[in-house]
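Minutes, structural biology subgroup

Action item carried over from last meeting: produce the structure token record for Enoyl-CoA hydratase (Effusibacillus lacus). EB confirmed the sequence was re-checked against the source entry. Recorded below for completeness.
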Amino acid sequence: MVYEFIKVSIDQAVGIITLNRPEVLNALNLKMVDEIVAELERMDRDDKIRAIVITGNDAAFAAGADIAEMADEAAIPMLIKDQFAVWDRIAKVSKPIIAAVSGFVLGGGCELMMNCDIVIASETARIGQPEVKLGIMPGAGGTQRLTKAVGKVKAMEMLMTGEPIPAEEALRHGLINKLVPVEAYLQEAVKLAKQIAKQPPVAVRLIKKSVLKAIDTPLNEGLDYERNSFYLLFASDDKAEGMRAFGEKRKPNFAGR
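Output recorded by EB:
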């Protein structure tokens, strides 16, 4: 498929989506978000792909939403359009998504990053939700996911001042997984994705679903979900292969069944 605002590549079992509007620091317009989600869903259906990386460029992962698209909008047309509904589909992607971010990670870019499962950031990354400076607030999950990630008081500060935080601080608050030099952030993300891609796909899928369940449900409900997923994996060929390989002291070859 040919896209206007993203580039797609494959590295072994890893699908890579690169945001490609460098002239506006990868600002997310509606078509770009549609393309990102469509490709995520396509990769999710592709059995040859076992992990996904989303990245931008050294200057910007994404510097926010495309303000020009919203500047003249009114409340009711925005409500009817419901431009954020497409974002809900990202959470339904079953394969692990790793964000490789650098430079500006702001507004919608921060929300896209927080929709990913793991985040590798360069030392130049600056992460935040500056919408309040435009007289608005986040609408694609920023208030919710940021609060769950960094806690109430830090989220209040970031959201109400609109000031971004440097990558080092984001690491301390658990907003990103790893901080690396700018020349290595994408390679590190792809390396991690390849490591995950070698694991049994069904187990990885159920682990992702179980962790997401932990965020949104009471402990007892989450424990029930985890336990049932654990039992379900005993019906998989990969469980048999993994345990057989362990006994034979060799590396397993997981087929995703």
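Discussion: The chain has eleven helices and ten strands.
Next step: EB to file the record with the rest of the batch.
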